[in-house]
Amino acid sequence: MTDALLQLQSRSLYLRSLEQQDTNDLVHLFRITENLRLFTEEYKKPFIVPGDLTAALESHSQNPSAIGKAYAVVPHIGGPAIGWIVVRYLESTLQAPFCAVFVSDEHRHDRIAEVFFMMCEYALEQLRHDNIQFRTGGWHQDPTRKSAGDYGMSMTGVLKRQMLIRKGSQVLDLYEVTKTQWPSIKESTEAWWAASVMDANPASEVKKEQGP
Fold first, then answer.
1. Which Gene3D superfamilies does the UniProt entry name for this protein (predicted)?
2. Domain span at residue 58?
3. What is the pLDDT of residue 31?
4. 161 falls in which pLDDT band (50, 70, 90)?
5. How many domains is the chain partitioned into structurally?
6. Cα–Cα distance, 212 to 203 (Å, whole number)
7. How far apart are CA 95 and CA 102, in angstroms?
């Protein structure tokens, strides 16, 4: 059976199945405390220690249900993967939450937006889910960096108003789009493709809103 996710592509990216180097990179990524936190909190802590996740990644092809399905995010121009997503299907709630990690470079924010766009189309249009939720982690070597701002996940514009989930006054690094929100969000292309789709420095966003 054809894997529908492997048919997804965006302006400059597409998804492919994992190769051995991808598995090696993911194992490295999830040794970073914050990345592991993002993943395990999204999936209700299915892995007790990083070693469990490592084993699951290394055996995902034999037992996909252990972590869902993992894919590499690759530029159309070729080269190594610049990110990875892990999708887990929850039959009881008809949802497909996913975790995404990306290499940190000057194009990271645009690539994150493109992957979110692809996954929203897939979940809300093809699968007809009521909503989609997602997190991202980054390629950071410093395990002391804890905040969402440190990971470039403060969103601006339309996406911030409609997708950022808040708990009291705290901004969480969990994003959601509902099927009723999706049509207007999808049409707001400037919110997806503008250079300021995500701002790695929340303080600079506040200054822009307040003026000079």
1. 3.40.630.30
2. 4-145
3. 66
4. very low
5. 1
6. 13
7. 23
